[in-house]
Amino acid sequence: MSKLIIQVNQAGYGQGSSYQALQFTKAAIDAGHQVVKVFFYQDGVLSTNHLQSPASDEFALYQAWRELGQTHQVPLVNCVSAALRRGVLSAAESAENQLQHWNLEPPFQMGGLGELVTGIEQADRVICF
User: Could you tell me which residues are beta bridge partners of residue 8?
Assistant: First the structure.
């Protein structure tokens, strides 16, 4: 079985790429592949904002990614530069920037492009959405 990295480049709502990435990741895990990590890049970091509040009859993409990460122990890594530009902050970045609020909670974590490169070295394939 293959080792995969999933890279999510588009926002969760308004475009279907993050949802498609989630479904692909679930299918890959069910098929026995190892997902080394999911890397959220560019507008993909918007999928990790825990303040998202979809209507009760809409699919909760943030919650689905969170459950996948926790259930299958898949690291969910945000590109820190892309996240900060788009207002997605962890508690650490919030403190560094002297802000009182943050919107990134575990299991999501911040990382740099080095995390992506390290993951690529471990993986057989990178799948981009």
Answer: 40
Active site amino acids: 79
> What's the pLDDT tens digit per position in 59-72?
999 999 999 999 99
Using pLDDT thresholds of 50, 70 and 90, give the confidence band for residue 117.
very high
If pLDDT is split at 50, 70 and 90, which confidence band does 12 have? Answer: confident
Query: Taking Cα atoms as reference points, which of 7, 4, 3 lies closest to residue 129?
Result: 7
Look up the pTM and report it: 0.94
Distances (CA, A) of 83 to 20, 87, 121, 124: 21, 6, 23, 26
Of 75, 105, 77, the closest CA to residue 90 belongs to 105
Name the H helices within the chain. 17-30, 61-72, 80-85, 91-96, 113-122
Q: Which amino acid is at 48?
A: T
Q: How far apart are CA 94 and CA 102, in angstroms?
A: 6
Inter-CA distances, 86 with 18, 41, 99, Å: 16, 11, 15
